[in-house]
Amino acid sequence: MVLEAGIEGKPVSVEVGPAVVVGERTVVRLVVSTSQAEGHIMVSSMFGTTRAPITLLDVQMLSLDKGLVFPELSLSHEGLYQDVTKDDPVELFPVFAAVGGGVKTVEVLLPHMGVVVGVPVAEESKAGYSAADVLAKAELTTSDPGPCRLQSHTVAADGSSDVKRDEASTTVTVAGDVTFAVDSDQLSAQADSVLAGVVEQIKKYPSGGELTITGHTDDVADDAHNQDLSERRAKAVSGRLKTLTDLSAWKEAVSGKGESSPRVPNDSEENKQANRRVEVTLKPSKPQEGDSAQGASAASSSTAVPEATGPVGKGPEGVDVNVDGKTLHMSIDRVVRIGKYLTGSVELSSDQDVSISGASFALPETMQKVHGGWVIGGVYSLTLLSGSTRYMETDCEPPAGDRLPIAMTSFGSSVKPGVPVRLPVVWPDPGGDSVTIDLPEGEARLSGRIVARLTDIPVTNA
Questions:
Q1: CA distances, 240 to each of 158, 170, 192 (Å)
Q2: 280 phi-psi bin (left φ>0, alpha ψ -120 to 50, beta other)
Q3: CA distance linking residue 77 with residue 79, whole number of Å
Q4: Which tens digit of pLDDT belongs to each residue from 389-441?
Q5: 62-93 per-position pLDDT tens digit
Q6: What domains are defined for the chain?
Q7: Could you give phi then psi for residue 296, rounded to 5 degrees?
Q8: Kind and range of the H or E run holding 195
Q9: Residue 359 needs a FRET pair 20 to 30 A away by CA distance; which of 6, 103, 132, 409 works?
Q10: How confident is the model over 369-376, as a mean pLDDT?
Q11: How far is Cα 427 from Cα 405, in angstroms, rounded to an integer?
């Protein structure tokens, strides 16, 4: 599989694969070459992270059919200090945990370049290189090798709720300030519309399972008051859900945690608001029942799409945005559906040298609260919109270490005239034949966030 891309405005080709499994590890070969007749291309920081730039740690191997992501494990610098010229390509060998039996192809995310689909998993004797020799020389991280399960997150455009879904459970978090009167367990006039999202999730699993409802508060009042309020709010949500849908197939547990489990530090009014919430967690006895309903319900939503706050253009045609007085063109020709996920790459191009800041593709601070460590420096703001629901970039949460977005975690280059830079991303699939990418407005820790919308992006099947 060959990916045509560009680095620093210069053309680059990357031949990806095959992948070879040896014992507990998978090795993937990358051959980086260029058609440029003169000069050279440095690969030293193309694939690294902010913390470890001269590595391959920002490369990710995926099995989207199985909902798995494999973090890169090699700390080796071999090949990364070489320059790519027309007559001298560079071979690189990222290392991952072994893919399971029966996996015939994988996807590989290459930062600044794209997602390569359909990379074959081959026997070592047919690979054309020795994976065993690569592993014998490799210096591997001691972190958990993975793989980890992909997680999906959606957020209501008005901030009233958000949903986190993995293989085994779904957690709907409803905002206390929208669902209740101030410092009260009395449900507000908007409560039923917010709880409708909880009902939608419950109805996906007719066989039922375990249902946990937990109330949380900020730290404004004393511990006893907050504990009591959190319990009363959880009971109020439980009671209202029973009038909105049938819970007879669910084993229910209702409790409050007061101020003891904040979502974020209680160090600002905005953070205190985020901590005033009720979490409803579903652990269905038959999780597979939700698979067929996952995309269909969102795609058929008649709720209006929020009004755009930046420039708008159709995905294949693109849109121009202003970055420090210079014009940056953003476009995407299509996204590809694989299993329950979509993947695609937004292209950045310009006829000028455009510097990308650490905040350019950061999430607004209000959304960072939902996503923990996703802050600045990477590509985190390419969300999908379906009706009034915002689909965040897919991520995973390894047993050890920070949450891992399935996107670039370090933007290591500016955009220069010539070949475009690509921003690869994986999203949960909202269903439908086309999607809209929205870079939402809002403040981050640093200035310079890009706000834009790309519509009518075709969806094709892998």
A1: 21, 19, 8
A2: beta
A3: 6
A4: 999 999 887 766 667 789 887 775 689 898 899 999 999 999 999 999 999 99
A5: 999 999 999 999 998 888 888 888 888 999 99
A6: 2-146 (no CATH), 158-299 (3.30.1330.60), 312-461 (2.60.40)
A7: -65, -45
A8: helix 191-203
A9: 6
A10: 60
A11: 10
